[in-house]
Description:
heterodimer; A: about 450 residues; mainly alpha; Serine Threonine Protein Phosphatase 5, Tetratricopeptide repeat; 3 domains; globular; B: five-stranded antiparallel sheet; 10 strands; elongated
Amino acid sequence: MRLRFLIVGLTAILLTGVGAVFGLRHGESPGPGSAQASSSLSAGQAPADQLAASIARAQKHLSAVPGDYDAWAALGSAYTERARVTADPAYYPKAEGALRRSLKLRPTGNPAALVGLGALANARHGFATARDLAHRVLRMDPYSADAYGVLADAQTQLGHPAAATEAIQHMLDLRPGLAAYARASYDLEQQGRLDDAVALMHRALGDAVDPADIAFCRYQLGELAWRAGRLDDAETEYTRGQAADPAYLPLLAGHARVAAARGHTAAALADYAELTARYPSPGYLMDYATLLRAAGQPARADQQLALATAALRLFRANGGTDDLGAAQLAIAQGHAGQAVLAAEREWSRRHFADVADMLGWALHRSGANAEAISYARQANALGAHNSGYLFHLGMIELSLGRNADARRDLSAALALNPHFSPLDAPAATAALHRLGPR
Amino acid sequence: MRRLVSLALAALGVIGIVLALPARPASAQPLHPLGNFSVNQAIGLDLYPDRVAVTAIVDLAELPTLQERPAIDTTGDGTVSAPESTAYNTRVCNAMAGAVALRVDGHRVQWSVRPAGFAYRPGSAGLHTSRVSCAFKAAADLTRPATVDLVNGYRADRIGWREITAAGHGVHIVHPPVPVRSVTNSLRSYPADLLGSPLDQRSARLQVEPGDGPGAGATIHVSGGDPVSRWIAQADRALERLVGGHLTPFVGALAVLLALMLGAAHAALPGHGKTVMAAYIAGRRGRRRDALTVGAIVTLTHTGGVLVLGLLLTATAGLAGEVVLSWLGIASGILVAAVGVAMLAGVLRRRTPVHHHDHGHSRLMELPCAGQSCKSCSNDDNRFDHGNSFTRPWPTST
C-alpha cells in the first residue's frame, strides 16, 4: 500500500521532471538561427533577454499552432514591451497586428488581448484609450492585476492621481509583486514622498529575479537618490544595476548624469554618445544635447536635436502621439511659439504634472508669464519636490517680479539637487545671485 | 487500486505533456530586423579553389543613417558629395574588414578591401535609410579538405538582422550550415509577417573539400524542435481544427471528456491539501476504501466549491472578487487548523484507547484556489508570463 503511494509519488516527480526538461528543450531547440542568437545575447545588445526569449517562444508556438489567441495576445504584449525596452517604435505596429489577430480569433471574452492593447495605447501615449480598455477588461474580469496596471499608468498620465492610486491599491491586493510595488513607488514619488518611494522600490527589488528587473529596480533607486541630490548613493545603485545586467542601458544615462554633475564632462559625453548610439530615444538625445550645449558644443548639440526630431517623427509614423516631447524639443531648439502649441495640444488630452510644467515653461519662453504661472503652480501642486518644476516656477516668478517667491523656489530646487540639470542648475544659481541676499 | 494507480499515471502523463507545451526557452533574438534603429548586415561568402571572396552589405535604418550623417558630410555643407560618399564607403569597408574574421584551418586571412557602393534610399517618416556595399578578397588554398571559420563581429552591439550565405565554386561545401542564397535578396526585402523570425547569424563553420557544384545549400526553416514537441504541436493543431469549427454534440462531449481528464490531472497536482490528505491517511492507517472515499470527497468538494463560487460571482455583480478571496483565505486557514486539531485530538484519544473508528471524513474539505496559495491555478492564467516578463512596471515615456 505504502509502496504504491511511493511509486505514484515518484512517477509524479519523474513526469514533472520530464515535462520540465522537454519544456526547456522545446524552447532552445537548435534551429539555424537560435544557436547564434544565444551568442548575440552574450554580445550584450538586447537589454531584455527574458523578453526576447518569450517572443521567440511565442513565435515558434504560433507558427505551429496559429489559432492560439492567448499566445497571440502574449506575443503582442511582448512586442509592446520590446518597443519600450529598446525604445524602437517599429515594434508598435507589429504589437498591434498580433493583438488584433488575437481579438479576431476570439472577439469576446478575450481580456488578455484587451490588456495588451491597453498597454500598447499607454506606450503610444494614448492614455484615454488605455483607460477605457482597462475598464472594459475589469468589467469582464475584476481580478485582472494586469488591467489595473494599465489603468494605473493611464490615470497617472492623464493627471488623475487619486484614481491611479486606487488602481495601484487593487493591483497590490491582487498580485503584490514587482510590477505593483514599482508602480506604487512611482505613485509615492509623484506625491513627493521620496523616502517611502525608496522603501517600496526596495521591496520591488526584493521581488525581482530577472537580471533586467533587478537592473530596473536599481536604476529607479538610483533615480530617487539622484532626485534628492545624493550623488554617491545614485552612483552606487547604477553600478549595482550594471553588475546585475550590463545591457540595461538607462543605467548608462544615470552614470552620465552623475559624471556631468561631478564635472567629469568628457566622461559624461562619452557615456551619452554610447547610449544614444545604441538607444536613440528622443529623451536621451535631448539630454545629450543639453550637456553638449553646456559644454560649449552647440553644433553637436543641434545634431542631437535633429536626431531627436527624427526619432519623434518615427514615433508618430508608428502610431504614437507625444506632444510633450515635441514641446520639449521645440523649447530646446528655441521655437517657443511651437512649444506652446504642442504643450497646449497635450494639455487638452491630459492634465499630468509634466504637461503642466512644460506648458508653463513654454508660455514663459514666449513671454506669457502671467498665464505661465498658474500652470507652473499646478505642476507643483501635488508637492512632487521636483527640481525641474521648482526651477521653472521660480524663473516665472522672477519674470513677474515676485522676487521673494522666486528666491524661495529657486533655492528649493537647488537644495533638492544642486546638479539637477547641466544648463538649468547654473541658471538657477545665477538668478539667485542676481536676486542677491534677502 | 491498480486501476487507481494507472489512472493517476495517465493523468500525470497529461500533466507532463501540458507542462512541456508552454515551455521556457533560453534562446533570444531581436525581433524586428527592420526596426528604425537597426544596423543590418549580410555576408555573402564565395569559395574558390585558390581564394575566398566576401560581398558584405550593411543596411542602416533611419536613425543610424541620420546619426552617421555628420561623419559622411565632413565638409558640413549639408550635401553628400561623391568624394565624401566614397571616403565614407572606404571607411566603413575597412572597419568591417577588420571585424569580419575568416580563418582557413585556423589561419586568419588578410582581406584586400574594395568599397563597392554607398547610397541613400527613402525610408519611413520622410527619412532615409542607407546601404553600404563592400567586397573583400583573400588568397586561400581550398584544393584540399579544409575548415573555413567565419565570424562577423562588426557593430556587435547594434540590433539588426545578420545573415551569412556561402557558395562554393569548384569547391564543395560538406553539409552546408548556411544557405547559398540570401533570403532577403541581400537585405532588400525582409520577411514582414508577424511571426518573422529574424536571422542573427554571426558565425559559420564550413567543411570544404575539392569538388564541383555549389553544394546543396541549406534552406532556412523554422525548426519545430524535438519529435515530442512536434507531436504535441500536431496534436494541438488537430484539437484546434476539431474545436475551431462548429460546435457539434460530439465535439461538445469530447470537450467535456477532455475537461474531466484535465480536471483530474489538475486535482492530482501538488497543492489541494494532498499533504493533509496523505497525513490523514497515514495517520489513520487507511485502507483502499478510505483513500478512495477521501479522494472522492476532495474531488466533489473541490468541484462543488468552484461551481458555487462561480455561480456566486456571476450572479451577484456587487460581490468583489478580492473580498471573496480574502474571506476564503481566512476560511481555509481556519479549516486547515480545525482539521489539524481534530487529527491531533484523534491521535491523543487513540493513545488512551477508547475507540478505533471515526467517521470524520467530511471534515476534510477542500477549498477552491484561494489567493496565491494555489499555484496551479494562477499559472494557467499566464502561460507565457513566467517571471513577470511582460508586466514590467509602467512604460517610461519617450
